[in-house]
Amino acid sequence: MKISLESLAVILLGLISFHCATSTMTVQTDYDRQADFKRYRTFAWREGTGKSIPENLDKIIRKEVEGKLLANSYVKADAGKPDLQVTYQGLVQERTVWQPVGVGRYGMSMRPMTVREGTLLLEFVDSATDQTVWVGAAEDDVGARITGEKIPRAVEEILKTFPRR
Predict the structure, then answer these.
(1) Domain total in the chain
(2) Is residue 21 scored above 50 in pLDDT?
(3) Which domain holds residue 134?
């Protein structure tokens, strides 16, 4: 079977467009190699966490993080000093990407497209030393409106490598 150059270009353009249109969440984590995670049993939210985030998104983030930690046998500290203080930050920024729009006489045509990218950063601080012992971040395209639908997956992906009890 012989494929023409034009057919190959259309297929390639379709694949590139599909890749540009689909979102790929990227996740990064890091931790203090000296920290003894076996001694951490309790957690609580660090004061001031979520103050700059819309209330509906703050509730989703807290619910998801608490659910994952409780499922991993950590205990939420309602009173006293927890072993770990949890905090998070959210950021949305715009960036320009080049999207293919067609194959013309002089090759492939591209146009700039602005995408909104959201980042969720989770940080775990040792209450005794006030030092960060574990941090994770997820980044993904969020679209025009931030609805919170990607938050559960982001939290799950970030906490995949968080030490279990």
Answers:
(1) 1
(2) no
(3) 5-159
